[in-house]
Design goal:
The protein is 50% helix and 12% strand. The chain is an alpha/beta fold.
Length: 325
């Protein structure tokens, strides 16, 4: 027996049906043929949700914080979608960590949808399908979407392209690790969350972040807020929500929110174009325009990297013949 059609899935998503949402996200994550029709239909109905990215180094307590934020938004009566982007299993290709293991209390709440997604080799902590999943949840009526990344350091800048507000979670005691990621985090954070604030060293960490922000003030970006939390106890959540709301208010008033949405659209378009060209090139293993043929010639130093790229793109343009691939 065949499953529901793409049109039926779209109708279910727009009606807020959990099963349809789950099936739609699975299809876009797997790159199924029906995914294009589904995303094309729901994209026009999306654009209303508040997307918050939560990122930071491993061990900072991101999952606990997301769990607490989800509960706080539910107390406000909002429907919440949570997408936890986890490392890809080397065996199954799926997410290694289970969202429901970490967020058990939300399982029976119909107003919360939780999904683990695998990075599938993508850098930046976010999978390619994350933006599509956010559109699906948005169109299904989820008012707040929380994106939690794997926490891979400076490559987390990709989260900025998918979120309206980025929370960078840090904890005392990371030592040299915090030094290694500061440069990248300076550029992506809208709110700094100093989690596990009951630990020794919290004052030192806050001073370091404040000094770092003072050095970057000439960028013209609004200075990110610094909020202390103890997520597993729920401490500091009110201050964190207030900081996020203040950021949203300022971003909407100054036009920064529109600028970020435009940049997000640009990123999605370029990412999809790059992916299609790479898939096409990878599938061509024979002929002068094939990827492997170009790699072999490049390795033998018969051509330089720019000539190799030109050969692939030239073959791509020739085969496209005015039609999309």
């Amino acid at each position: 027996m065949s499953g529901p059609s793409a049109a039926e899935i779209v109708r279910g998503v727009l009606a807020g049906e959990t099963r349809a949402v789950a099936r739609a996200i699975s299809l876009v994550e797997d790159g199924a043929p029906a995914a294009r029709e589904i995303v094309g239909a729901v994209h026009r109905k999306a654009g209303r949700a508040w997307i918050i990215g939560v990122t930071g180094p491993p061990g900072a307590g991101k999952s606990t914080l997301v769990d607490a934020l989800g509960a706080a938004f539910r107390m406000q009566g909002r429907r919440v979608g949570i997408v936890a982007v986890d490392p890809t299993s080397a065996f199954s290709g799926g997410a290694v960590l289970g969202d429901r293991i970490r967020m058990q209390r939300h399982n029976v709440d119909p107003g919360v949808y939780i999904r683990s997604m695998a990075t599938r080799g993508h850098f930046g902590g976010l999978s390619r399908a994350t933006a599509d999943a956010a559109d699906i949840l948005d169109a299904a009526g989820y008012e707040v979407i929380l994106l939690e990344t794997v926490g891979v350091g400076q490559d987390e800048v990709e989260v900025v392209r998918a979120a309206d507000c980025v929370m960078v979670v840090l904890v005392p005691g990371l030592g040299d690790d915090i030094q290694a990621i500061k440069a990248g985090l300076l550029e992506v954070a809208d709110v700094y969350v100093l989690n596990k604030a009951d630990r020794d060293g919290i004052e030192k960490l806050e001073t370091e972040i404040a000094n770092m922000l003072a050095l970057g003030e000439e960028t013209g970006r609004p200075r990110p807020r610094i909020v202390r939390t103890v997520a597993f106890l729920g401490k500091g959540l009110d201050d964190l929500l207030r900081a996020a709301i203040d950021h949203r208010t300022v971003a909407e008033a100054t036009g920064a929110a529109d600028a970020r949405r435009r940049e997000r659209s640009r990123w999605r378009l370029l990412d999809l174009v790059r992916e299609r060209v790479l898939v096409w090139a990878s599938e061509r293993t024979e002929g002068g325009g094939g990827l492997e043929a170009a790699v072999a010639r490049l390795c033998r130093r018969e051509i330089d990297p720019y000539e190799a790229a030109d050969s692939i793109l030239g073959a791509f343009a020739s085969q496209a013949g005015g039609r999309p691939l």
